[in-house]
């Protein structure tokens, strides 16, 4: 896969079926509606302060959820533009959507990590876990992280 920037777009070129599939799965991976991912994406403010947590949950979290959902919706709409020819996919994303992609990629990494109990040691290990679902989650986290790194380097975010 190549990622390049123009004045108006971010171009994802030469994506094989695996990478294209990971990108197409990004909205599902980033979804924080399940309890496990939700706790990771929207943690309480303070572990021992129920009043502060209640205020956070009532006043701050709904706005954060709306913002994260709007970013996810932008990415999902962009992904409808994936084009595949002879097994190679391309995608052109408006550069104005780069921030939504950055947020969604980061959210997906956090949600996947929470759902599969990925630790710092897992991320630093050179061995893949025996559990295939966990191994795929680690691979997704790594690939999303590489894409995130390129987007951060190529934008004024």
Number of helices: 7
Give the fraction of residues assigned to helices: 55-70%
Our count of domains comes out at 1
Q: What would the average pLDDT be, to the nearest integer?
A: 91
Q: What share of the residues does DSSP label as strand, in percent?
A: 5-15%
Alpha-beta classification: alpha+beta
| Rg, Å, rounded | 17 Å
Number of strands: 4
Distance between the termini: 22 Å
Q: Give, in spatial order, the strands making up the sheet with the most strands.
A: 1-2-4-3
Q: Which keywords apply here?
A:
4-stranded antiparallel β-sheet, 61% helix, 157 residues, 4 strands, alpha+beta
What does this protein structure show overall?
Strand 3 (83-85) and strand 4 form a beta hairpin. This protein has one domain. The protein is 61% helix and 13% strand. The protein has helices spanning 17-24, 26-30, 35-41, 50-79, 98-115, 120-124, 132-154, and strands at residues 2-5, 9-15, 83-85, 88-94. It is globular, with a radius of gyration of 17 Å. The model has no long low-confidence stretch (mean pLDDT 91). It is an alpha+beta fold. A four-stranded antiparallel beta sheet has the order 1-2-4-3.
